[in-house]
Specification:
The complex is a heterotetramer, with 2 copies of chain A (about 290 residues) and 2 copies of chain B (about 375 residues).
Chain A lengths: L9 E5 L4 H13 L2 E6 L7 E2 L2 E4 L2 H8 L3 E4 L3 H13 L4 E4 L6 H14 L2 E3 L5 E4 L3 E4 L8 E8 L3 H12 L4 E6 L10 H10 L5 E7 L4 H12 L4 E6 L10 H8 L5 H10 L3 E3 L5 H13 L1
Parallel strand pairs in A: 1-2, 1-5, 2-4, 5-6, 6-7, 10-11, 10-12, 12-13, 13-14
Antiparallel strand pairs in A: 3-4, 8-9, 8-11
Helix pairs in contact in A: 3-4, 6-7, 7-9
Chain B lengths: L1 E3 L1 H11 L6 E4 L2 H9 L7 E5 L12 E4 L2 H11 L3 E2 L2 E2 L3 E5 L6 E9 L4 E7 L15 E4 L8 H11 L3 H20 L2 E12 L2 E4 L3 E4 L19 H8 L3 E4 L4 E5 L2 H13 L4 E6 L6 H13 L4 E8 L4 H14 L8 E7 L2 H10 L4 E2 L2 H14 L2
Parallel strand pairs in B: 15-16, 15-17, 17-18, 18-19
Antiparallel strand pairs in B: 1-13, 2-7, 3-4, 3-7, 5-6, 8-9, 8-11, 9-10, 11-12, 11-13, 14-16
Helix pairs in contact in B: 2-3, 4-5, 8-9, 9-10
Classes of the chains: A alpha/beta (about 290), B alpha+beta (about 375).
Chain lengths: ~290, ~375, ~375, ~290
């Protein structure tokens, strides 16, 4: 088993004729993903990397029974691309596109939710389960099948950390890169129950960042509902408070949102918190041993 | 994020019908005087420095005037003052109103609930962080169906407004909601929102526009906000670039990895001075451009930390070597590189042939960067 | 439901930027001639009767003109024609365009899906009912998030439009969607939508506005649509009143009960001539008003069928008796009443003392009404 | 048991200080409904018919744990009143108000649906289960506890028919007046499964009208999923085709929507269809006897 994706995942790549879309359609195939269709309006009938291209997601779904989408279309068109996937019945959408205005994302999130579609992202690396399927752009080489789950708000840092886990001889069950935008379709709290329920995950690595209260919320969830060992790292401990969203932002997060509050909350919830990224593999080793006990 | 100055925020407000004091912008003392003399700003008036950092009241940058001469004097006293490195270049002159209570009102995003949120308090005119939680009301607004009448009624109740004043708030909230949505704002804040007779007037305006919505709002492309000169150049070139207090320049790819790199450097005793996130690019030209921008910030040493996932380490290395050639000899600085992942071997070789050491060990290379920066204080 | 005439629909379209032929309205032949002579309508032009019923093309009410004199002649020929009882009082004169294909496009409500729906067909210019289902595309539009680009792309594909023409359709659909929502329309229909060069032009316009949204649209209060004179009076007084072909007047409370009453009368051999739904009111004054309106329709007999749930039978009876007094003796007609439910006994007594028979048996009293109407052919 | 309402239904009356609101708050109480609160902005602290009035539905729910709402506010304010109830957590809303623009109702319906709130109406008599609870305006006198379910698009005609059922000596389990507007929150198809599942309903009376295809859709549902006997009546068999919604309306309903198509569909689905309303009680008697067999 795995989380959200499996061997039955059939991916349509929206924006497949763009550079990123083409590259990652190929990479996903190399990972073992069933990439069944691509969509670029006006390009129906062509092929990219051996994948048939359609004018609309609806056409793609009718012809190929795609059930997941990976969205690479440019930010100004991403909102409608997502809505199109939802209306075509796609129930898992990985939005790789970055720089989507959060006002657009609010519409995307609430519309998708009302139709029962899960969004991962935007501005995210996506999801991968070695040996099963990958939807998104996480580099294939960092993976190795195993029993460590990973949830992260970061991109490259995730690759770095997943790669580090691999080097210790351990492997991953499923890795989800949530994306670091202000509004994301799936948060830590949304993803944690999936790993709790996954019999193939023994321990979880959680990579957070400063800003927002997603990590504090996750800590609250972990404390009450998550029974597997958790290793966490919060990036940005030494980042300047810098460019804040005025006073109103402070009122919403009041007393939360800093690296300190996140680390404290996670430690209080029983997580092992790494101070620096290269401490993670050691802590994961400990966590796995504790899980076996 | 584009922070608008008070006068810019107010000109957005005016477009949507938010009630404001009569006012004009002046860029010199003479202009301030003639605005008042010509009756464009009624007397008595208030003269306010247009800076993005707070604390201008205490800093003597808000003054009152009852005659054109006083307006000139106030302008002379304020223009050129500095607030956290930001020089006062513009003044807003506004009629001085006889105000009743001062309220607080803002609209922003609640990330956790993934909804817009109205924040309201009857205790305006002070820093909202200093107001106890119990006196601040928060209510989310669903973008579908949008702001409703019961949400407006609740805000009126919280703010202690009834009758004509409540109807005035209705219209004001409708306008603010439009500003928030149609201008792609991250924040729309009025503090203080003054009760003036039967109506309401926005005495201040804080508006922050989201950068990512720039494709819908070319009109904000020219607004610099509180960016430094180099940050402004970076923004034009679409490079994520932030200036800090230290002396080590950091180049990494991805926001999380960049932050983690800062964490490591600080832990090892270093002081990051600039950080530059290459994002997903490995186009050598873009890397060169970014690196030359970094050079202009005059770092004591630069630490490059690349994890090549999609990014190719050799492409980044090529751009880097090209850039190092363009930096004049007397402006050069030690460059310590840590590259890993996709095409790591090729990248290492390219750097090596240009005389740049690189390892794949984050901790060791970060330590080398800290040492190099110390070596050249 | 407010049906707009073509010229009224087009003036709504113009407000939202839907591309239209140049045109003007004339109410006399002289006016038609001078509109052309003054160059306000370019030549050659088409002169179209402004009536709400269809079939004007076959009825000779659409003519072409190449000179001002021909325009006058066409106007003279058309003005005063009658279509299903509707006299032609207005003409629309429009430039005659060189058109390519004719398409069909409309936006209306799909009750079952509870969503707005776009109906599009490449076979426009004919009655859409005559086009095979396979050549008609239907797609629903969710009010949140509103019309999207992929819905517009699908419409373009269905209509066989690409490039500049597709972009023209994009703008047209955005405009139609705004008309539909902002004007509270039940139907917005363009048939034919003509391909003219690189663009599209709405040659006809059918717009129906929802009555219930009147509080948002006082501008439509004056539009009569295809109501009869008495129906128009009823609408002003907020009375549900429809004129039919028969001779029995029916007054009932509630649309379902009114329809069921018609069913019963017809089953028993009667011919309903007017029906009037009192709705939820039992205010004697309103009942009187409604009844006097019914009297103006000169029914041969009137059948009153009231089920008093919330409505009080005695209140209705009072209003009725009062109204009967006001009808002049020579205009009176037999009134058969069936009342039942809330305060039935009191109501029966009030009617009885005014000489009006009433029972609580629907079938028997309906039969009596049918007989009464037959007795006075 | 009963459908949608029961003895735990706690009603807040929105618009209680208006004439209709006041009258029906009293009538509901007389029926046995727990009317726990009223809402009229600006009238908090007062009482109507012994029911406490609040400024907002949220206040009312906090103070009284109301879980159903009966909406009487005038049409221009009905949209927001419904949204307010939904946001306050009310999961059953009976909208009595008539003349609500359908564009408003589209927003109301889809918003309520996304939050899991059921709307009955608008422009409807509401729901009543004799011996349990009533939310809305159906006259109390027409009822008598029993085992006949009623679903109707009409108002007064429903009272007439329910009353007729009572006179035959039978009673009603639950009666729902759906409302006859173009967009209703609950259709026949939405309501039928509730009666199918209700152990206290032996047979169902369905009162339809011309226009739309709700009855045809119901027939389709009955044919495949509804096992209890159904008696139906369609009002408007002799009504003029009259004022139609242009050609587009005909395209949507194509070949459906007339009394003839509705009657035929229901008969094909096995329903007993009355030609005239006064035939219903006899058919119900037959239906009940057939159900007992």
């Amino acid at each position: 088993m795995s989380v959200l994706v499996d061997r039955d995942t059939r991916v349509v790549v929206q924006g497949i004729t763009g550079h990123q879309g083409t590259v990652h359609a190929r990479e996903m195939r190399l990972f073992g993903t069933s990439v069944v269709a691509g969509v670029t309006p006006g390009k129906a009938g062509t092929e990219v990397e051996g994948v048939p291209v359609f004018d609309s997601v609806r056409d793609a779904v009718e012809a190929t029974h795609a059930n997941a989408s990976s969205i690479f279309v440019p930010a100004p068109y991403a909102r409608d691309a997502l809505l199109e996937a939802v209306d075509a019945g796609i129930r898992l959408c990985v939005v790789v596109t970055e720089h989507i205005p959060f006002h657009d994302m609010l519409v995307m999130y609430h519309y998708a939710r009302s139709k029962g579609t899960r969004i991962i992202g935007p501005n995210c690396p996506g999801i991968a389960s070695p040996g099963a399927s990958k939807v998104g752009i996480i580099p294939n080489v960092v993976f190795r099948p195993g029993r460590i789950g990973v949830i992260s708000r970061s991109g490259t840092l995730t690759y770095e950390i997943v790669s580090g886990i691999k080097e210790t001889g351990l492997g991953q069950s499923t890795c989800i890169g949530l994306g670091g935008d202000p509004v994301v379709g799936t948060t830590f709290v949304d993803a944690l129950p999936l790993f709790e329920a996954d019999p193939d995950t023994d321990a979880l690595v959680m990579v957070g960042e400063i800003g927002g209260t997603a990590e504090e919320d996750a800590a609250e969830y972990i404390r009450h509902h998550f029974t597997k060992p958790v290793v966490a790292y919060i990036a940005g401990r030494s980042a300047p408070p810098g460019k804040r969203m005025g006073h109103a932002g402070a009122i919403i997060t009041r007393g939360k949102g800093t690296a300190q509050t996140k680390v404290a909350a996670l430690e209080a919830a029983g997580a092992r918190v790494a101070r620096l990224p290269y401490e993670i593999p050691t802590l994961v080793g400990e966590a796995v041993r504790s899980a076996r006990r | 994020m584009v922070k608008l100055a008070e006068w810019q925020g107010k000109s957005v407000f005016r477009k949507y019908g938010v009630p404001l004091p009569r006012g004009e912008v002046a860029r010199s003392a003479a202009e301030a005087e003639s605005l008042v003399r010509d009756g464009k700003v009624p007397l008595p008036c208030v003269v306010k420095a247009q800076v993005l950092s707070g604390g201008r009241g205490k800093g003597g940058a808000v003054r009152f005037a009852s005659t054109p001469e006083e307006a000139r004097a106030a302008a002379e006293a304020i223009l050129g003052l500095e607030f956290k490195g930001e020089k006062v270049r513009e003044l807003l002159l506004e009629e001085k109103l006889t105000i009743g209570r001062e309220l607080y009102l803002s609209l922003t995003l609640d990330r956790t609930q993934r909804l817009p949120i109205i924040i309201a308090s009857a205790r305006g005119g002070v820093e909202i962080e200093s107001v106890p939680d119990a006196e601040i009301d928060r209510q989310t607004v669903d973008p579908f169906p949008g702001l409703t009448s019961y949400e407006k009624r609740r805000a009126a109740k919280v703010l202690g407004l009834a009758g004509t004043q409540a109807r005035s708030l209705d219209r004001l909230l409708d306008a603010l909601w439009k500003v928030f949505q149609q201008e792609d704002a991250e924040l729309v804040e009025i503090n203080p929102l003054a009760v003036v007779g039967d109506g309401l007037v926005a005495l201040d305006a804080k508006v922050i526009i989201e950068d990512d919505a720039g494709f819908r709002h070319p009109e904000y492309a020219e607004v610099r906000g509180d960016l430094t000169e180099l940050e402004e150049v970076a923004r034009e070139k679409d490079i994520a670039f932030v200036q800090l207090d230290g002396n080590i320049g950091v180049i990494a790819n991805g926001a999380g990895l960049t932050m983690a790199t800062l964490d490591v450097l600080k832990e090892l005793g270093g002081a990051p001075g600039v950080f530059l996130d290459l994002g997903g690019t490995d186009d050598p030209k873009k890397v060169t451009e970014a690196f030359l921008l970094m050079a202009r910030a005059k770092p004591t040493a630069v630490f490059l930390n690349i994890f090549g996932g999609v990014t190719r380490c050799d492409s980044v290395a090529k751009g880097l070597v090209e850039a190092m050639r363009e930096v004049p000899a007397n402006e050069r600085f030690p460059l310590i590189a840590r590259i890993r992942g996709n095409n790591e071997a090729e990248g290492t070789e390219i750097l090596r042939s240009a005389g740049i050491t690189s390892t794949s060990d984050l901790r060791a290379s970060a330590q080398a960067a800290v040492d190099a920066a110390r070596g050249r204080p």
